[in-house]
Each structure stands twice: as C-alpha cells, then as structure tokens.
Write a structure and sequence with these properties.
325 residues; mainly beta; Jelly Rolls; nine-stranded mixed β-sheet; 1 helix; 39% strand; signal; lectin; Beta-glucanase-like
Length: 325
C-alpha cells in the first residue's frame, strides 16, 4: 500500500522448448534489454503475454558504495518524505535514506539490499521506501526474491508491512503485502482501491492467501500485471488472480517497509524492528513512452522471443527455438 502523501516525479506465439545450442549467439542474450531478443515472455497463468524490455537488478554482490553510484541513481530513488500522525495512523511515519542499506553475509560472503523499519520512541515509526526512476511501465511481470525478518535475522516484530508493488496513484496500484502481525504463511494480494468513498472495505479488491511457505525465508514474489487481470505467484506457483481494478495508468516499481500504528499494520512495540531483505529484482515490461537503459532500442515486431522462466541462470533470458529474426 502506497501513502498518498507523496507526489511522484515523474499476446502471438505458443509455448516453446528452450534452445540448447551453446554456439548460437542468440542463446546467450545480455541480462538487460538484449539486442538478441525482440521480446520476452513468461510462464504461468492462462494468458500468454509478451514484453519488450527486460531488466535484472542483482543485489548479491554489491560494492559498499553502490547506493551512491551512478548505476543505482539511474534506476532507483530512495525516499525521504514524512507522513504525520492522524486518528487512523497514530504514529508519525518518517522515511529515512539511511534505512536502505547493504547487508553483507557471514564471513563477507555475498550481499543483499535491505529496507529497515523500527520504532524507538512513543510517537514515530522510522521506515524505508524505494521507487524506480522509470515511471512509464505499462504491463509487466516483476519478481522480487526477498524475505522479511527482524534485526540480525531474528523474527520480525509485529507492526510492519512489507510492500512490493506497482503504483501510479491510489486507484492504479497492484500490491504484494506482507504484514508482520499475520502468520508466516499469509500474504495479501490487492488491486487498489480497496476502500470505497465511505471508507468501507471492497471485498473483491483483495485476496488473502494462507498456508503459503513462510515469508521469513527467501522466496520469489511475482506480480504479472496484464491488460485485463493481475496474477500473483510465489516461487512460480499461481496463488492469486484478480480482474477487479486492474491498473490502467503507466506506473513505477516500488518497495517499502513501513508501519503507522494503525489497524492495518498494527502497532509496533517500542524497540521493535523488521527488515525486508532483497537478493534481486527482475522485470519484463512494456512502456507508454521512451525508455532509458542498457541496450536501448525501439519497440517493434516480436521476432526473436526470449524466456525468463526456467532458465539456466536467474536473470539471464534464453531464446526459444522457432523464433525468427
């Protein structure tokens, strides 16, 4: 769920088997907008969708200064806005740049991107949010390999919400939401708005999936935002689908971890904390306008089709056979 206090800056072929000829240059596309791929397709659901662009953000081997690098700043924007307390949100919410960090594994092995939230006084919840600089995404398949824990890998304190979502405005938003006051196997999937003008819940807006694998462990959380439906997956298994209020406006990718003491998140105890840990994010998408990034090229006819699911290495698309230049 996205707070409305922030003002933003801003289907053709059937299924194929993977091509295995290692000496064919088309089998080794670049991880970002490969010139060898005319379009990308995904597995899952009943709809075949095709996307023009591909990006893979790998957080597993970051340098200590990555969050101030040109590469980071070209793609992501760490938020620093404040939302005041209210009758519905008893705690002031302050997004801090320093609440986004890089976690280094034991013995210096590997890294991950972290978003942190904590409460250390009676009035304030310190939170974190990241948005993509690109805000013209229209239809996408986005995957977040992530988990939610407490500090030092302990159990997350109750009173936080981890959000992985697309957003344009409060009526054009698709959410994956993990509430730390929920059981470990419960995740909420929503197309906004989920409240009517009188503040009453809209039942068809949200699906609560239970008996899922625990969100305290790493899993791949996925949103497929299509023209007439939103599908949500967990580790390639379809867990929810909705045709209500499918977003219609160009959007960005958002990740946040927050709480405000309200009924949705619950109130975190003083001294409590939670951490959203991300190893990577992958997206295939279409746009409503120009796009900047590696391998920039014009949208065109889908000739060489690449897949992103079932590949030999996550983040590196592979060409389907029978695709023609």
């Amino acid at each position: 769920m996205r707070s409305s206090t922030f003002l933003p800056l801003f289907s053709m072929l059937g299924a194929f088997r993977a091509l295995s000829l290692a000496d064919d240059p088309r089998t080794n596309p670049a991880k970002d907008n490969s010139p060898n791929c005319s379009c990308y397709t995904v597995d899952g659901g009943n709809d075949t969708a095709y996307f023009t662009f591909h990006r893979f953000w790998d957080f597993r081997n970051l340098s200590p200064d990555h969050l101030t690098s040109d590469a980071w700043n070209a793609d992501w924007w760490i938020q620093n806005w404040t939302s005041p307390a209210s009758s519905d949100s008893p705690l002031e919410r302050i997004n801090l740049v320093e609440n986004v960090g890089i976690l280094t594994g034991k013995n210096g092995n590997g890294t991950a991107l972290t978003l942190n939230t904590y409460r250390n006084n009676s009035h304030t919840q310190f939170t974190a949010e990241i948005q993509s600089m690109q805000q013209n995404i229209k239809h996408a398949s986005i995957r977040f390999h992530a988990r939610v824990v407490g500090s030092n890998g302990s159990e997350a304190s109750k009173g936080a919400c981890a959000g992985l979502f697309t957003w344009s405005n409060d009526d054009n938003e698709s959410d994956i939401e993990i509430l730390t006051q929920d059981p470990l196997g419960t995740i909420r999937y929503t197309n906004q708005p989920d409240l009517d003008k009188a503040g009453n819940a809209i039942p068809q807006a949200s699906i609560t999936s239970t008996a899922l694998p625990p969100w305290s462990l790493f899993h791949t959380h996925r949103i497929d935002w299509l023209a007439h439906a939103t599908h949500w997956f967990l580790d390639d298994a379809l867990v929810a689908a909705n045709t209500y209020s499918v977003p219609q406006r160009p959007s960005g990718i958002f990740m946040n971890l927050w709480g405000d003491g309200g009924s949705w998140t619950g109130e975190m105890a003083q001294g409590g904390s939670a951490v959203l840990v991300l190893e990577w994010v992958e997206a295939v998408f279409n746009t409503s306008g120009p796009v900047k990034g590696p391998g920039k090229r014009a949208e065109g006819k889908c000739g060489v089709v690449c897949r992103v699911d079932g590949v030999r290495e996550i983040g590196w698309p592979e060409v389907y056979p029978n695709s023609k230049n």
